[in-house]
Specification:
Elements (H helix, E strand, L loop, with lengths): L4 E4 L3 H12 L5 E5 L4 H4 L6 H17 L6 E5 L7 E6 L2 E7 L4 E5 L11 E4 L6 E6 L3 H6 L3 E4 H15 L1 H4 L2 H14 L1 H4 L9 H13 L7 H11 L6 H11 L1 H8 L6 E6 L1 H13 L5 H21 L5 E3 L1 H4 L5 E2 L9 E7 L3
Parallel strand pairs: 1-3, 2-3, 10-11, 10-13, 11-12
Antiparallel strand pairs: 2-4, 4-5, 6-8, 6-9, 7-8
Helix pairs in contact: 3-5, 7-9, 9-11, 10-11
Length: 347
Amino acid sequence: MDGASKFVRGDAIAGILIMVINVIGGLLVGMEVGYCLIPMVDHLQNGELLGRIRRIRKKVAQEVGFLPPVVHIRDNMELPPARYCILMKGVEIGSGDAYPGRWMAINPGTAAGTLPGEATVDPAFGLVAIWIDSALKEQAQIQGYTVMEASTVVATHLNHLIGQYASELFGCQEAQQLLDRVTQEMPKLTEDLVPGVITLTTLHKVLQNLLTERVSIRDMRTIIETLAEHAPVQNDPQELTSVVRVALGRAITQQWFPGNGEVQVIGLDATLERLLLQALQGGGGLEPGLADRLLMQAQAALQQQEMTGAPPVLLVNHPQRALLVVLSNMELTDNRQIRMTATIGAK
């Protein structure tokens, strides 16, 4: 086995060892499975989930910019037979049921008609779904359902959670590994930066901030060059994160709006932006009536974005960007046309 996953039989000694290792933080990501799911994770039985987990780790590394930790797998006879639990640092972050030999038919919202089977919910995205017999797979696809077999359901859930918790999985060790890689490829770029200009702790915090805001850290060259330019006069990780985001603006825009077409975003009314900035900086609040109206407008704007197939991106002026996980106007490149699909706060 290449280490992408480790399967440990659930005897008492192995269980105690894994519990101890989890407690001391040795295993960042783990998965426990009920006995019906053991064949999916046992390499001796050609478990399909093992290969999927290897591909997930490679995919995350390509998209996010660092290789997530090994997923350690064990059986747990205390779980219901078809149950699996995904853990981070020994704490459950997700769970679900999977039935080998059956298929999950997910209704994306446009499926026609119903199917016989066991009603459920897609564990990754919360969509209405049904576990169906394999004989109904083709019929489900004809009716417009998205159909996945059991190991794909588990793998998709794991992939979603790794992306969701990427910033927590990225520690100082991962930051050092990235820095070492950049040093090997471009030694001149890093030789004077760490620890001469910024500490490893600050670099780690900036990279972690980017991951928290769902910004890929693949382009370490741009990140390092930007930090080398700004860190000598600014050592606050939040401020450094903002300037790095501007430098990564093209990639951020491309992440949400692939291609070179129109950028369809939600905007904030200029007066509202000023009120929000004053309230957030001064520690004050908004009038209840205004807050309720903004909430209704935001919900309507999100529904409109969803109907047009555009991502739910809010575009604000740069000073407000650090206060919200949104897109700043300084992060958009000049060659992209912007269209405000809705403006929150407009009367």
